[in-house]
Write the structure tokens for this entry.
Amino acid sequence: MARCEVCGNDYGMTFEVHAQGEVHVFDCFSCAIHRMAPICEHCRVQIIGQGVEADGHWYCGAHCARAEGKVGIVDRV
């Protein structure tokens, strides 16, 4: 069994996420999201969906990116 790096649960069905040369172990998706999801630099929400990256900064959407002065970013419908 392996231990979740967020909640510490020792669980037989953990899973690994390989990202940026590191291996992370979680027991559920909510723990993985808690640890791995970027945070919007404007409103501070965790970005679960696509998000917007502009000049090395992450935003939950075009509205927050524009609020931080980023130009030329539009939401796609």
